[in-house]
Design brief:
Elements (H helix, E strand, L loop, with lengths): L24 H5 L8 E2 L3 E2 L1 E2 L10 H14 L9 H21 L7 E4 L2 H11 L7 E5 L8 H10 L2 E5 L12 H4 L4 E7 L11 H10 L3 E5 L11 H4 L3 E5 L10 E5 L1 H6 L10 E4 L4 E3 L13 H17 L1 H20 L4 E4 L10 E6 L4 H9 L3 E2 L1 E3 L4 H6 L5 E5 L6 H18 L3
Parallel strand pairs: 3-15, 5-6, 5-7, 7-8, 8-9
Antiparallel strand pairs: 1-2, 4-10, 9-10, 11-12, 13-14, 14-17, 16-17
Length: 428
């Protein structure tokens, strides 16, 4: 369909004209205090950088403040009432995350400081030998490339990867070539943070299991916008980060199958990860504590629990539908701007809410800075996905990313901002 701006202005804007948009969007937006912020000359914030980090609803902020004001204490070791309350809230958050993922057991949920740490935990503990192969993809975030580079280098193992098609999809023609009896690990993103591509992870997991490989999913971009069911998707490990699902920074999650986690050695030593310690040797605590050395991010985990409650109440199916509607509207808008080239699929049903693009004749950093002067927040750079940028012959791109609070009017503002940018730099 051809794009034209919707007749929408201000906070009272009706959004029902765009099918799929959350019907209670304006109510939801009021849950996020930062969205009412204005800049110089009363310029309203237009936040289109949610793939980088999402904003936090008031309930998450209040939950964390309440914990710090009324219940603050270290967990597990304290024998007093505050310690009990803090432990109860921390472990309660683990139960909430387990339900969010449909994990078979709450003990399979491990708290980390972010998704990068979760992926490093697996890459540093899973056994590899000289004849083994690890398979990743060309669209991975650096956090799912570098740990496997280091792991295969240490073991003398092979590192191979799925390439990309011109439309930003995985090149699955290589499937039989890459997945062999020597393949021990397949690690891939569910949703690309640069291209937006939603990968067929359940099918890849099924094929990987046929050759005996372990499947590691980076769900950092999937968890905010797709229903995540670890049992249905067929993964062996899955990682995501709290700050992209309306939770705080400093908290991530690794889920893994109990049988695999039980057989992995600890990643870090100290604190609650021990059962006993002597000067000669140590033994390990049961799951999940074996992998949670030291004082964990307690307040952050409690905030994450509130966040997954919040988005679960709205409904991940509804959020996904909203994201697709907004993304489709964005793609139509970008197609109307001459000189814009979108990287990745152009069908909103095939992608998430992150859309990277080039504007001919203008560096992405200049695009982002000029948009910022209009109150529009986007991302510019390589988005921790340098190999994917190299595949498409560019060093950097501008990325606009929506979330459950994004309105069609904000997309209109972006498109107007890009036309202003073209005029400013005198490009056609």
């Amino acid at each position: 369909m051809s794009w034209k701006p919707m007749d929408m202005t201000g906070s009272s804007t009706p959004v029902s004209d765009l099918p799929g948009v959350l019907s209670d969007l304006e109510v939801i937006r009021k849950d996020f205090p930062i969205l009412s912020r204005t800049f110089d000359d009363d310029i309203p914030l237009v936040y289109l950088d949610s793939a980088n980090t999402s904003h936090k609803p008031q309930v998450v902020i209040d939950t964390m403040v309440d914990h710090l004001e009324q219940h603050n204490a270290n967990i597990a070791r304290a024998m007093h009432r505050l310690g009990h309350e803090s432990t109860e809230a921390f472990e309660g958050a683990r139960h909430k995350v387990a339900a969010f993922l449909n994990a078979p057991s709450v003990d399979e949920v491990i708290f980390t400081k972010n998704a990068s740490e979760a992926l490093n935990l697996v890459a540093n503990t899973i056994p590899l030998g000289p004849n083994d192969r690890v398979v990743i993809t060309e669209m991975e975030h650096h956090s799912n490339i570098v740990p496997w580079q280091l792991a295969t280098q240490r073991a003398g193992a092979q590192l191979r990867w799925f390439g990309l098609t011109d439309d930003g999809s995985l090149d699955l023609s290589q499937l039989d070539e890459l997945l062999t009896p020597n393949t021990k690990v397949v690690a891939l993103t569910w949703v690309s943070n640069m291209l937006g591509t939603i990968n067929p992870v359940a099918e890849i997991a099924r094929r990987a299991h046929e050759v005996g490989a372990v499947v590691v999913l980076d769900a950092s971009q999937a968890a905010p916008q797709l229903p995540v069911d670890v049992q249905a998707v067929g993964a062996d490990f899955l990682a995501f980060t709290g700050h992209k699902v309306t939770g705080p920074t400093g908290i991530g999650v690794l889920w893994g199958k109990r049988a695999l986690l039980d057989n992995l050695p600890p990643f870090l030593g100290g604190g609650e990860m021990i059962a006993t310690v002597t000067m000669e040797t140590s033994t390990w605590a049961p799951l999940p504590h074996k992998f949670e050395a030291g004082t964990p991010p307690i307040t952050e985990a409690i905030g994450l629990g509130a966040a997954v409650d919040y988005i679960s109440e709205i409904g991940l199916d509804r959020i996904h539908q909203h994201e697709q509607a907004i993304t489709g509207y964005l793609l139509d808008g970008l197609a109307s701007v001459s000189g814009v080239t979108v990287l990745g699929p152009t069908d909103p049903k095939l992608r998430g809410g992150a859309v990277s693009f080039e504007l001919a004749g203008v560096h992405p950093h200049d695009v982002a800075q000029l948009l910022d002067s209009k109150g529009i927040a986007v991302r510019a750079g390589h988005h921790c996905a340098k190999p994917a940028h190299k595949r498409f012959g560019v060093q950097a791109s501008t990325r606009a990313s929506s979330y459950l609070y994004t309105t069609p009017a904000e997309i209109d503002a972006l498109i107007d901002g890009l036309e202003f940018t073209k005029s400013y730099f005198k490009v056609s």
